[in-house]
Amino acid sequence: MRSRRWPSPCSSRCRRRGRPRRSRTRTPAATAAATAAEQLLSFDYRTLDQERSEDAALLTPEFASTFEKTFTKILGDTAPTAKPVVTANVRAVATLECGDDCQPDQAQVLLFVDQVNSGPTRPEAVTDENRLVLTMRKDGDRWLVTDITAL
Predict the structure, then answer these.
(1) Contact 10, 21 (CB under 8 A)
(2) Bridge-partner residues for 115, per DSSP?
(3) Parallel, antiparallel, or unpaired: how do β-strands 43-44 and 85-95 relate?
(4) Which of 11-15, 28-32, 68-72, 102-106 shows the lowest per-residue confidence on average (mean pLDDT)?
């Protein structure tokens, strides 16, 4: 995987020039969001239960129940017959500007994610292009997902 270079956080000098202030936590939050998105949006019908329990470690407890309900609603009845195998690949990441609302333990991250949907019931793979905002919150030394919004 190619290494990404992130611009340095905007200092108070940038604010004086009229540029919006950026969170100092942009790189760790963006990295965690990209990793979480690839894991949360990838799944295999043969290992759904194991994957869901692993996914919970990336989510705040409050959001974990919402995510599980949504996932079950979408895939619950169709997974055994459709047998989906979906691989998510993050193509681009950008931490959204926070202006005067910057907090060291929160960030919103825009992600461009391709999901390749294949499996034994699909004659050829289909790629879905998704644009998402992951809201992240720092918990100790980890960044956890508190919300996912599709654009």
Answers:
(1) yes
(2) 88, 128
(3) antiparallel
(4) 11-15
Q: Where are the alpha helices (DSSP H) in the chain?
A: 12-16, 26-40, 48-55, 61-75, 79-82
Q: Which pLDDT tens digit goes with each residue over 32-53?
A: 999 999 999 999 988 888 888 8
Q: How far is CA 115 from the centre of its chain?
A: 12
The matching CATH number, chosen from 3.40.630.30, 3.30.70.260, 1.10.1740.10, 3.10.450.230, for 20-150 is 3.10.450.230
**pTM summary value:** 0.78
Distance, CA of 98 to CA of 23 (rounded, Å)? 7
Radius of gyration of the CA atoms of the chain, in A: 17
